[in-house]
């Protein structure tokens, strides 16, 4: 469970950072392109992360065993990609409904902050924190996630 939780948080923060960084700043808003970019980046990040885990855990065995281990390591990264889906869905809806970019960006960041709040609260409750403490931890986790996304957008 820890793996999918970490992947979900990573994917949510990644989607937020990409959404903020893809602001067109005066150019034409391209929500379908942005949605594709988020998915390609999430897939690439998941592959790189899974491959890094595989490389860090070499075990003796046959070639077939190593390929299976690589497959399992890559399959463990699915939460990174899944966690980007709400942002991708929002971007696709923005394209269909012709929503303005600024509203879409703020809505997406708000949605992802709510998801990070949920991830943080869930993890804290799962670890044994009481509800009030878990909610405070969720608020802090959402704020940290938004700070990371903002920092990524600034350095773009």
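Q: What amino acid sequence fits the structure above?
A:
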């Amino acid at each position: 469970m820890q793996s999918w939780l970490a992947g979900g948080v990573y994917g949510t923060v990644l989607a937020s950072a990409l959404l903020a960084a893809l602001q067109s700043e005066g150019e034409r808003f391209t929500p379908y392109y942005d949605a594709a970019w988020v998915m390609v980046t999430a897939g690439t990040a998941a592959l790189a992360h899974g491959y890094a885990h595989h490389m860090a855990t070499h075990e003796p065995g046959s070639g077939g065993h190593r390929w299976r281990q690589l497959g399992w390591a890559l399959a463990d990264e699915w939460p990174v990609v899944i966690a980007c889906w709400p942002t991708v869905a929002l971007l696709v809806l923005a394209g269909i409904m012709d929503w303005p970019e600024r509203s879409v960006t703020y809505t997406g960041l708000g949605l992802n902050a709510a998801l990070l709040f949920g991830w943080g609260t869930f993890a804290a409750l799962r670890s044994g924190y009481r509800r009030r403490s878990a909610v405070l931890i969720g608020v802090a986790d959402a704020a940290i996630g938004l700070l990371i996304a903002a920092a990524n957008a600034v350095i773009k």
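Q: And what stands out in the fold?
A: Residues 62 and 142 are 44 Å apart (CA to CA).
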